[in-house]
Write a structure and sequence with these properties.
Order of helices and strands: HEEHHHHHHHHHHHHHH
Strand content: under 5%
Helix content: 55-70%
CATH topology of the largest domain: MetI-like fold
CATH superfamily of the largest domain: MetI-like
CATH class of the largest domain: Mainly Alpha
Number of strands: 2
Shape: globular
Number of helices: 15
Length: 329
């Protein structure tokens, strides 16, 4: 027997209940994962962004192979023969696809290796920031009282600090000599990761705290407590799995911010130090000669632009897929 509902109501029913009508009239349930994939695939920009990110990730992982396939030298090899008769950088050519920089290093190789730096900084800082923020938010939202007061006031204090100035100060202090914390945070990528984590953990902490304040009053928490479950089990076994959606949304929106953060610090000279290739550092080196050496700024700038855009497209699509009501609002 046919169910007899319109196509519009069927689509609404699928979105709200996760069910689809079969030819025989039966109802087949869709899992949350299937619903997520179905909504995500509807966003063509997200699919294109995901494909671009896969290319960037593979190019970063297999950077030596990619450079050898196109005949490009290593990112740290200075070839004086690649400069013109006046000792100035030369533009794109068959030998150097993206041209060379002021000392004859291949720009293509440095852009590819610069992707490694951006992705490593973004992924590591995202994991650390999310972990610290989620734990602090869980503790503040669940225990409340003095624990909530201490964590919340600490978050407020951090949010009142000018982040860029704080990041520049910390990076400047740790980017020379033996670094900070007895040499634990050394100049280079560790400094950038530490600075981004130190100045960004407050955002997931506030998000998770608000979610936990609501979840802790739900029936499943009362049921676990009545069965004698410990606070540790309730927090990390019951509440944490229900926070997957906001954590994923934060992570996908934070990744492009971390890439821009690293590029800004490197541009200001307090991030990744030479000769390590970094998109922000390459743009800074080319800024004084943009009129005559446009290729040195153009290609790392385009790499940074498209990578951040791709992350933003994927992040927006994941946000809508995990919360379809926000897309209709």
């Amino acid at each position: 027997m046919s169910v007899g509902i319109s196509d519009f109501s069927l689509e609404e029913a699928e979105a709200e209940t996760g069910a689809v009508e079969l030819v025989s009239g039966e109802i087949a349930a869709r899992s949350p994962w299937e619903l997520f994939l179905r909504r995500f695939r509807e966003d063509k920009f997200a699919i294109a962004g995901l494909a671009f990110l896969l290319v960037v990730i593979l190019a970063a992982i297999f950077a030596p192979l990619v450079c050898s396939l196109v005949g490009a030298p290593g990112p740290y090899r200075a070839d004086q023969n690649a400069l013109d008769i006046f000792g100035q950088p030369t533009g794109p050519s068959s030998a150097h696809l993206f041209g060379v920089d002021q000392i004859g290093r291949d720009v293509f190789s440095r852009v590819i290796y610069g992707a490694r730096v951006s992705l490593i900084v973004a992924l590591v800082s995202c994991v650390l920031t999310s972990a610290i923020g989620v734990v602090c938010g869980l503790l503040a939202g669940y225990y409340r009282g003095w624990v909530d007061t201490v964590i919340s006031r600490t978050v407020d204090a951090f949010l009142a600090i000018p982040y860029l100035l704080l990041a520049i100060g910390l990076a400047s202090a740790c980017s020379f000599g033996n670094g900070c914390v007895g040499g634990l945070i050394k100049p280079g990528i560790p400094v950038v990761v530490a600075v981004i984590t130190f100045t960004s953990w407050t955002y997931p902490a506030r998000i998770i705290r608000g979610q936990v304040l609501s979840l802790r009053e739900k029936e499943f928490v009362d049921a676990s407590r009545s069965l004698g479950a410990s606070d540790f089990r309730i927090v990390f076994k019951e509440l944490l799995p229900n926070l997957t959606a906001p954590i994923v949304v934060f992570a996908t929106t934070f990744l492009p911010q971390a890439i821009l953060y690293e590029s800004a610090l490197s541009f200001l000279g307090v991030g990744v130090q030479p000769p390590t290739a970094s998109w922000g550092q390459m743009i800074a080196d080319a800024s004084n000669n943009i009129n005559t050496q446009w290729w040195y700024m153009l290609f790392p700038g385009l790499a940074l632009l498209f990578t951040v855009l791709a992350f933003n497209f994927v992040g927006d699509a994941m946000t809508d897929a995990l919360n379809p009501r926000s897309k209709r609002a």
